[in-house]
Inverse folding.
């Protein structure tokens, strides 16, 4: 077997060298394996006509179409597990008995089962390590759950590499040259499958050693004795991005004025609208949406907001993990791949990115310390130390930043609905060296700080539909097109001029008093006050919803006038 390992950091050209290795072979003699759909899509664009498969696709191709084998979705698997945990026939001896009915317990347990499988860890080993009642219950629940899936003819996606390995035989046709991109993102179970199918064949893999927390490159070197090609020149990354990565990883200095912009907004809706405005400016300058990417930490909560607001600005976008699309690529930091002229890394707020340290009740307690210690090297949530978790999140940020080969935008908001009164991410504090994110300090570092961008009518349209869920004429396509391009300035005695953005209108509709004190008078906010204001204006909100039918036929000016009249009825701004 001839093996090659291409090592290099972000922007060193690993993928392009891997592509060149593939081109040197004929398409029919190559099998290119990617860890996820985003990477696979990138490789398909670079290598048209070549066979590119994700690990999931490779497993399904090897397995064929077994009549009694059906992949179970995460939600469906969670339903099976919750049904099992609620069954009286399942007897538990440990403290799990008290928490088995909690929704979070089933979710954490399913995650643990999948991670143990992907990391090739036998659950029975945990009993040998601990010998505690909790370990016994872990085995009991796991075995009962797998028996239930087998009866139903279902299989977890995490089980696919193991099943494919057991079905591998001479009937499965494997090309003579295997190429693997982003080796650091594969699970140990997936690596074992790749190692087996490459037996007697030529294999070339590319890896970012800095991101290789599973140490698969060491396993690759130890087992295959490959020729190692080390790339050190990060030619793709612009100077500001390179210096930013060095500051995060080595404590260096950010250099390169104008290459990095920091957007600071009040709400997540304002944050994404500020991103949209920057995109429009770039598009006016000749950049296409296909040259832009948005990287998020929490894809599930951020995608609806991004899709709605960018759609309101008529900026096409698509979720990169769902396959090819047109427009701006939206991807999670865990799956970030490809290279783009402009990259927006959003959600850089405390407890968002980095995510809050994942304490897991399954692995909690002194009696589970031995189990946690055994699982810690595998990066399993609940077993990692807070410091290791922080480093894991920082690696994800570095991966996101390294997608940029031109201009980089970092952004955060103070309010993410689920997370209120957010502070800047510790990563931003590391970058600027300033907890207050002082504008002068950012300027000294060559970072352009922009706070509280102006919102426009397009943002009002999209956010109103998303947040209020109103199926009204005023929000129909005809009604929306009649809204002004930019909301008018309105002078209010005693507080000066204010621009009312879509999020401001949203705040008013939720709580007029909160809007008045927070948005107009700029008074300090406290969470208890929000609750108090909400109770006081309950009747006002009820009256407001009663009037919604009248607003069906109202023009935009009438809608805005109604909002302002409501303020005048509730408050006397002169006092």
């Amino acid at each position: 077997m001839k093996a090659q390992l291409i090592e290099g950091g972000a922007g060193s050209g690993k993928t392009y060298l891997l592509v060149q290795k593939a081109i040197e072979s004929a398409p029919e003699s190559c099998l290119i394996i990617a860890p996820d759909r985003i990477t696979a899509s990138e490789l398909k664009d670079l290598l048209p006509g070549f066979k590119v498969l994700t690990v999931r696709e490779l497993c399904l191709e090897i397995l064929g179409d077994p009549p009694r084998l059906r992949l179970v979705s995460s939600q469906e698997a969670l339903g099976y597990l919750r049904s099992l945990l609620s069954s009286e026939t399942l007897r538990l001896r440990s403290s799990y008995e008290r928490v088995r009915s909690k929704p979070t317990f089933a979710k954490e347990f399913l995650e643990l089962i999948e991670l143990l499988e992907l990391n090739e860890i036998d659950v029975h080993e945990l009993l040998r390590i601990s010998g505690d009642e909790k370990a016994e219950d872990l085995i009991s629940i796991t075995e009962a759950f797998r028996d239930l899936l087998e009866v139903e003819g279902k299989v977890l996606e995490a089980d696919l590499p193991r099943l494919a390995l057991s079905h591998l035989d001479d009937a499965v046709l494997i090309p003579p040259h295997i190429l693997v991109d982003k080796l650091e993102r594969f699970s140990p179970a997936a690596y074992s499958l790749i190692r087996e199918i490459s037996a007697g064949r030529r294999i070339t893999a590319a890896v970012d050693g800095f991101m290789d927390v599973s140490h698969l490159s060491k396993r690759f070197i130890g087992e295959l004795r490959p020729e190692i090609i080390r790339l050190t020149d990060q030619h793709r990354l612009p100077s500001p991005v390179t210096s930013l990565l060095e500051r995060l990883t080595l404590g260096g200095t950010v250099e390169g004025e104008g290459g990095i912009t920091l957007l600071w907004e009040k709400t997540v809706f304002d944050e994404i609208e500020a991103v949209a405005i920057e995109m429009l400016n770039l598009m006016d300058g000749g950049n296409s949406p296909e040259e832009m990417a948005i990287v998020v930490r929490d894809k599930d909560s951020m995608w609806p907001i991004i899709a709605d607001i960018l759609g309101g600005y008529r900026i096409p976008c698509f979720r990169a993990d769902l396959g090819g699309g047109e427009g701006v690529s939206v991807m999670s930091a865990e799956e970030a791949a490809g290279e783009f002229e402009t990259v927006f890394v959003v959600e850089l707020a405390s407890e968002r990115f980095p995510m809050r340290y994942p304490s897991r009740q399954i692995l909690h307690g002194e009696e589970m310390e031995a189990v946690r210690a055994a699982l810690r090297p595998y990066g399993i949530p609940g077993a990692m130390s807070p410091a290791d978790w922080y480093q894991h999140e920082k690696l994800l940020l570095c991966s996101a930043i390294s997608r940029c080969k031109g201009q980089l935008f970092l952004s955060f908001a103070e309010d993410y609905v689920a997370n209120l009164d957010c502070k800047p991410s510790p990563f931003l504090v590391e970058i600027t060296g300033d907890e207050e994110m002082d504008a002068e300090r950012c300027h000294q570092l060559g970072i352009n700080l922009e706070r509280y961008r102006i919102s426009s009518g397009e943002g009002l349209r999209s956010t109103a539909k998303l947040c209020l869920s109103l199926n009204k004429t005023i929000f129909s396509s005809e009604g929306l097109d009649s809204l002004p391009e930019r909301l008018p300035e309105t002078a209010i005695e005693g507080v000066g001029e204010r621009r009312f953005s879509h999020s401001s209108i949203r705040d008013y509709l939720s709580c007029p008093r909160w809007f008045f004190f927070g948005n107009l008078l700029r008074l300090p906010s406290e969470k208890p006050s929000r609750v108090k204001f909400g109770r006081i204006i309950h009747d006002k909100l009820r009256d407001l919803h009663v009037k919604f039918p009248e607003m069906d036929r109202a023009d935009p000016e009438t809608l805005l006038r109604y909002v302002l009249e409501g303020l005048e009825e509730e408050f006397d701004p002169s006092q």
About this structure: The CA atoms of residues 318 and 329 lie 6 Å apart. The chain has four domains: 3-66+160-231, 92-153, 239-451, 457-570.
